[in-house]
Amino acid sequence: MMDNGGFCNDNYHSLSSDDELVDISDVTVDFSEDVPPLIRDYSVGRSKADWRLHNSPKLMDLMDDTVPGIGTYEDFNTIDWVREKSKDRDRHREITNKSKQSTLALLFSVSDAFSGWLLMLLIGLMSGALAGGIDIAAHWMTDLKEGVCLNGFWFNHEDCCWTSNETTFQERDKCPQWKSWAELMVGVNEGASAYVVSYFMYVCWALLFAFLAVTLVRAFAPYACGSGIPEIKTILSGFIIRGYLGKWTLIIKTITLVLAVSSGLSLGKEGPLVHVACCCANILCHFFTKYRRNEAKRREVLSAASAVGVSVAFGAPIGGVLFSLEEVSYYFPLKTLWRSFFAALVAAFTLRSINPFGNSRLVLFYVEFHTPWHFLELIPFIFLGIFGGFWGAFFIRANIAWCRLRKNSCLGHYPVLEVLLVTLITALLSFPNEYTRMSGSQLISELFNDCGLLDSSKICDYSGSRTGSVNDTVSNGLADRPAGPGLYTAMLLLALALVFKMFITVATFGMKVPSGLFIPSMAVGAIAGRLLGVGMEQLAIYHHDWNVFRRWCSPGADCITPGLYAMVGAAACLGGVTRMTVSLVVIMFELTGGLEYIVPLMAAAMTSKWVADALGREGIYEAHIRLNGYPFLEAKEEFRHKTLATDVMRPRPSGPPLSVLSQSGMTVEEVERLILDTTYSGFPVVISHQSQRLVGFVLRRDLVISLENARRHQEGVVSVSAVLFTECDPPASLNAVPAVKLHSILDLSPFTVTDHTPMEIVVDIFRKLGLRQCLVTQNGRLLGIITKKDVLKHMAQMANRDPDSILFN
């Protein structure tokens, strides 16, 4: 063969960008393993190689100039953290050396150092602005299910009645400018006909919003569904999922998140806001060269963006930084900590400037408690922690079972029908109960509320609180007010709402719409906490002479705060589902502004984690990562088995030998045939096939691009041209064909372990260095290879799980 035609069917020059959309919801993709253990016959063409080595090729190092595509990664592959960090160190060293030579180079060095802070500023501004818009739109569309403002359809209920002069204190949520759908259609706001019309319109609007959400996701951005946090954790660990953080995903997720929240489904916007912030970060990274060309540096930015997402979701910038550190980040250096703090600060300031809730707060349910708690109250707080742990374990198992049923049955083939069916059930059962009819944020705000003189809701209906004088009410205090009929009704409705939300959330999380888990989990815990708090309050009223209450609950004192119990219950349930501890306590503290309640929150969060861990080690995000088969090495999972590297490496003792490249004994045709016959991501390079002495490691993608570039641009390259991974030139000859010199793409320092290295150490190395593969040697001789997938399969096998479940699905 004397032609210069390329061999590869794949077009490696039209690289996939992060804006491409790949629908993997219904497809099983086996991501490439790193090195193939295949039998290869290298005797074929050996005479050509011997002839070639004894002639003089004209050498051309293809890597003297940068070839487009070299150093990049294919979709559904893992990045090489060591190589990426080495590239960044080389780039920084070059910039530092040049900065000493000229003023222009010095200015470039300063701008390069400042670019990271500028990027954080832009991420904070963009994420804060989007979060403010989402909050405003979701509030308006939620109220649209109940009625419309005559002064302007774009006003929500609160804004519509804000300037009305005809609003009374007792009915401050009613004004002539706001008309319910019943008033517009049948002319009355009360009665059976009005109830039926309101019920019907509520269900219709919910179905419309849900249908639009799932249709947009299905048609334009399949990656916009779900929470996004499991995938972001996987991406931050080094996995490539192109399109998941692209511009179309950002646009569709922003729109459909508003629709999904407004539909009344049992979901929240907090988790998806982390995905939105990471999309913003990924898009903005393309405007900065050092982040666009380095996957490891980009993941540092994405870690900071995760903190931004929680900051705008809860108005908790410090909690967001700790959430990124504790829950999602894989590599979190000190520099990223500072930049995360700055980005979260900018995002919180931007959201505060927009003021989406009109209360000068960052969240809808911001409250301030000042009533002190007693030491004996730790007992009910710990009971709430136990409830949160049981709820978390139940939810994870039930939700994973439901999602597995969805994936393995015909239900997964009809995502639109599933969303509409769940929405219909949710709307039909939610409307009759005022506590399930309102949004999750409004419900939590209601439950966190500490009843005062100005509260007129049923949850604050105490005997004498509305009939007595103000002075009597103040003098009697909360502890002397027994529950009224409205409070008993509210407790019954809350109990029904608790059961409803516990089960409907299981079916909702994981559908093909944006769905967060923070708000539903907090709502379940807040309901349980409020019920327990009211029970403790009434117990103290009717049995104040008991020794347990006599010491700290004197008559006329506000000794029990039901809103505090709701707050502690919310933290317990959220901790049981996600297994967060430190970040959870800080988030709840920033939500409430109550320094004095840190100890109850810590007790509940720690108890819920202990109970949930006793019933199952995985949090909800880790469970979904394992369900989807993502190649993620969980740092919290310990490996305690006494196996060795030789037990895991490939090839197996009874299997075929390992396929390798020789340093200088192969032709272009042989290398191309090896690449075409395999789908793997890299090959070890040895001195010769007889000695098997290790020289280095070369990535398949770099090899393909380099050979294709040589075919196109290097004169005289043919199928019998030599492929050299050395810097030494062979002896000169007049009739020799040009050789392809690929020494520059060879990694001369691949990570190696001996065959007797304990797997416990190997697993730790893979976690801490983020390796793709590790070569196994004995006295410098190559024996085999261990890939990340091999480690995951071995860990699954040791845990009595199906090893084949480690498959990106």
Automatic annotation (TrEMBL):
Topology relative to the membrane: Multi-pass membrane protein
GO MF annotations in UniProt: voltage-gated chloride channel activity
Ranges for domain CBS: 649-715, 745-803
SUPFAM superfamilies: CBS-domain pair (SSF54631), Clc chloride channel (SSF81340)
Family annotation (Pfam families): CBS, Voltage_CLC
Superkingdom classification of source: Eukaryota
InterPro entries listed in its UniProt record: CBS_dom, CBS_dom_sf, Cl-channel_core, ClC
Chief place of localization: membrane
Record keywords: CBS domain, Chloride, Endosome, Ion transport, Membrane, Transmembrane, Transmembrane helix, Transport
Record localization: Endosome membrane; Membrane
UniProt record similarity statement: Belongs to the chloride channel (TC 2.A.49) family.
Protein name: Chloride channel protein
